[in-house]
Protein 1
Amino acid sequence: MDRVIEKKKWTTKRIITITLIAVFGFFLIYLIFLRDKSSKLYINKNQLTIVEVKEDKFQEFIPIDGIVFPKNTFYIDAIQGGVVEAIYTEDGDIVKKGDTLLKLLNTAMELNYMEQETRMLAEINNLQNTRLSLEQNKYVRQKEIVQLQYQIDLTERDFKRKVQLYESGVISDKEFEDAERDYKYTLKQLNISVELQRLDSISRESQKIDIQTSLSRMQENMKLLRKNMENAYVKAPAAGKLSSFNLEIGQTKSAGEHLGQIDVPGGFRLEARIDERYVSRVFKGQEAELYYTGDTYKLFVDKIYTDVINGAFKVDLLFENDEAPKGIKRGQTVQIRLTFSGETDAIIVKRGGFFQETGGNWIYVLDPSGDFAYKRSISINRQNTNFYEVTEGLEPGEKVIVSSYDSFGDKDKIIFK
């Protein structure tokens, strides 16, 4: 008797088919929704510089080169031009204030001096003669008045006698009138002479003042001429060490030309040039540090030169309490740290080539597994020669790639081989 055979629902073929369909569906879902779409770059981890993000003390500063100069320097310039006739000192000598350093010969100036001196002496002599004439005129006027007073005395006596004789009828009217006329004439002459003496006295005093002023001016001019001649002998303006004094007999020097300088002992200053980007952040009294032979020396900005030349401006720095390193020499170049802030707690990351590529806007952060690194946005505020200060995007203990990103392109993820 035949038996009905039931058809199986889950045949091997059906199971395989359903399984393949499920696998294919999951694969589609993975491709569409679950697959990591970020761009990747495979690289050897040993080729990278990886550092740890730290929380530590941070101080903003920039390194600048400072050239050592004496704190006080007196420059020696030729006040007048001429030919070097004699040299009395040498470069490096210790000189005292007023010591004669060299002599400049200027024949044209010497001839001009002699001509002016002769002319001034003649003018002085004329003024002195004029003043003498005024004094003589004063005594001439006084002598004239004395003579008139004598004449008045005579005519007055004669007139008084004539009055008595005329009243007695002894003399005639004519003799009386002549005596009276002579007396009055002499009185009028005296009054005129006295008035002339007064006017002469006023004029004489005014002329004497003008003459004295002219004589004083002439004498000052004479002193100035002599001083100009003395300038042919160049003297030390201060005591100290003579430097940059390299002259030869016969050299011609123009007026105002630099001849050398005197370095006054007792301190040094540093002259440094700073990028113009920091011109608004540098101020007088700003602190700086110098590391020299294992010790740290404090400095401060003493003077700021506002002129910007070739993208930089100049400053002078002085040592605190004049405590300069022993053995430091003029002309030596040393590196200084110019600080912009005090030490503060901050999250910091070591400087590296990544900054040139990212501008400090993002960085590659290592995954905790250490197998790969990925992009993360960050914010960098201040910086110094060693570290960047990170204000956003990183936490202490995380590790980041700080070496150059030039060969990374724009990959989102760095996978380590």
Protein 2
Amino acid sequence: MENHGIVCGARDIEEAEWFAENADSFCQVLLLAAGHGAPLQQVGRRSVKDFLAIRKAMGLPVDDAQPLYNTNRFNGYVMKKTGR
């Protein structure tokens, strides 16, 4: 499967699709951010909660039961944490 995309496993198809969408979005954002040449930093848990609150305020769906998968590594690259 090398160079052919991602493989997602989950409790059900909807959760696997959610993981795949998040992986796709993460990769797109990472590519755009890396193009600016500044060091990449991962947002903290508080910021993630703020982003979810904004989504809710806009009427966009947010599954409160969905755990926040938060990692500080990507493809061997260790991302720095922000202060928040």
